[in-house]
Amino acid sequence: MSFTGRPAPVPFARLLPWVALFCLTNGATLWAADPADIAVQAKRGQSLFIAHCIICHQVTGHGTPGVYPPLAGSDYLARADGRTGAILAVVQGLGGNLKVNGQDYANQMPAVVLDDPQVADVLTFVFNSWGNPGGSFAASDVKTIRARSNFKTFAQLVEANAYPPLPSAPAGFEVRELVRLTDFGVRLASDGRGERLYVLGQNGNVWRVDVATKKATLLFTGDSYVDRSHGDPGTLGLFLDSHRRLWITCNQRNGSTRPLVTNEVTIFRTAGAAPGGDPISPKPWFRTAYPYGIGPYNHGVSQPAIGPDGRLYVSSGSRTDGGEKGSDERLGRMGEVDLTSCLWRFDPEASEPAIEVVARGIRNAWSFAWDGAGNLFTVSNGPDAHACEEMDWIQPEKHEHHGFPYQFEDWPASKKAYPHTPAAPDGLAFSLPVRNVGPAGKPADRDGRTFQPHSSPAGLVWLDDRWPEAWRGTFLMGRFGNLVTTGDGVDVGFDVLSLRLRRSADGTGWESETRTFLAPLGRPIDLHVAGGRLYVLEYTRPTDFKTGRGWLPGRILELSPRRGGQ
Q1: Are residues 225 and 313 in the same domain?
Q2: Which of 18-27, 36-45, 376-385, 430-439 has the lowest mean pLDDT?
Q3: Which of 179, 254, 256, 354 has the most CB atoms in a 10 Å sphere around its CB?
Q4: How far apart are CA 352 and CA 362, in angstroms?
Q5: Does pLDDT of 24 surpass 50?
Q6: Integer distance in angstroms from the first to the last C-alpha of the chain?
Q7: What is the pLDDT of residue 21?
Q8: What is the pLDDT of residue 10?
Q9: Is residue 551 pLDDT above 90, yes or no?
Q10: Smallest Cα–Cα separation from 537: which of 431, 452, 459, 429?
């Protein structure tokens, strides 16, 4: 699974990628409508598509080959019953065997939690995009078809996607629901005191959450600082520094550039503060661009954080699944480029910031963090080829390579993830991932480096000696959960793991004793420590993949140590 460079998951990739959500597929007869009215309706639908659909079907509508079917030029939409099928796919979900444009698909699409007018709008956008049949959809028609679906009304669908019960608290902790969100949150930040949190939405909105009152307030919208002429924003990273400046990373697919479509990357930094101390006025601090990812794999630039050395570190995900060249001349047929699948470092006070690449071969590190001794670790999402997700030890001054796209896990050079896996340059040595010795989080069929395929590592934090004894001196890592079927029908992720690291016997690497800390969760996408409490940001509400429930905005959970730590 991948978090992709787009609003959402998130993401995830397909955190996202641009972090974030699930989607639609498909479509149905023809209504006559005024072209101007269709354009207005399609514009509304485009915003809904960005919020709810692109994590699977992508901003280009091309889907993920073999995983999520294309909407662009879809023969499924062009069928005589395509409009009816499209409505049913959105309001009820879609599963089982499906053939689109000659390719078979057998994944699960959940119902999309949109009301009747919203379903009509998003399908009008899809049917009037990417060479599809055109025409408009009416809310009344959606209502009629919804009435014969598994969810007879929109209210029934919403009820089916209620918030789950709180998970059982780990030993030494109490857990409570802090706030329910109206936006799909992807990141948390604060000054560490625990009085207020800042939440980044996938389209650039920034919210303040007052911990005492449990109230969320919109500080500023993405439209107030992101130039949409560069493309729709996919904001994936948030950090508050010691000067109370918010750093926000943003990716935008710019299709107007020639000869190649580009991913326009902007790092914003707030330029002031409101009377109450909230950061305001995000301004571009750094800009760059590179060829947009081939097909669905533009993971984009995500987490920013200032390290113990005072430097700003930023994760830049891959633009491919596994180094493939691609076939679209407009998307660049060159595999990875110098600015992707790596970790950047900057002088945060520079007036003309320049990138220093301190580690390469990291497919898509949604998060990274430092332990109590200053050791830096990243956690990354693996490819669709069922290789493990990885945790990597980063030694910035050594500028090491961590394998992608040439090697996954600790596989020998003869074992290739794909037929197209490129050969490694002569003399290039790889730093191996952390070895997971279990008992949790490791694949059942092999020695894990590091976590089960498709479990989607997300937020990462360190717990020092002030936390309950069972957990102190460990990393906690959220796992967003699988977005593709694992083959055995078992979901992976949807939890927070505890990782107790130790040096390997030969002293060259690390291994992790891994335990489940908190489960089940609604796709935990970020973790944050502040004021002696742990905050878990749930992206949405379902706590598994196989039930096919829809997606609605999640919540923030707060975990506090019990008195005495027991």
Answers
A1: yes
A2: 18-27
A3: 179
A4: 26
A5: no
A6: 36
A7: 28
A8: 35
A9: no
A10: 459
d(CA 391, CA 174): 28
The model's confidence at residue 370, banded by pLDDT at 50, 70 and 90, is: very high
- Does one domain contain both 315 and 443? yes
Tell me the per-residue pLDDT of 64-73, one tens digit each, with 9 for 90 and over.
776 788 999 9
- Among residues 127, 145, 160, the one where a domain terminates is 160
Does residue 188 sit in the same domain as residue 280?
Answer: yes
Q: Return the SS3 of 429.
A: coil
Helix 116-127 and helix 82-92, axial crossing angle in degrees, nearest 10? 130
Residue 16 resides in a domain:
no
Decide which of 160, 194, 223 is a domain's last residue: 160
Number of domains within the chain: 2
CA-to-CA distance for 299 and 341, rounded, in angstroms? 9
How confident is the model over 420-445, as a mean pLDDT? 93
C-beta of residue 481 within 8 angstroms of C-beta of residue 21: no
SS3 per residue for 481-492: CCCCCCCCCCCC
444 and 471 Cβ atoms separated by less than 8 Å: no
Top-confidence residue, 9 or 312:
312
Token representation of residue 160: 């089916």
Tokens 């975990």 sit on residue: 559
Q: Is the pLDDT of residue 275 over 70?
A: yes
Whether 169 is in a domain gets the answer: no
Identify the DSSP state of 470: T
Q: Are residues 248 and 350 in the same domain?
A: yes
What predicted TM-score, i.e. pTM, was given to this entire model?
A: 0.82
Residue 337 lies in a domain: no
Integer CA distances (angstroms), 372 to 153, 346, 380, 396, in order: 52, 22, 21, 17
* 90 and 237 assigned to the same domain: no
Residue 207 CB neighbour total at 10 angstroms? 19
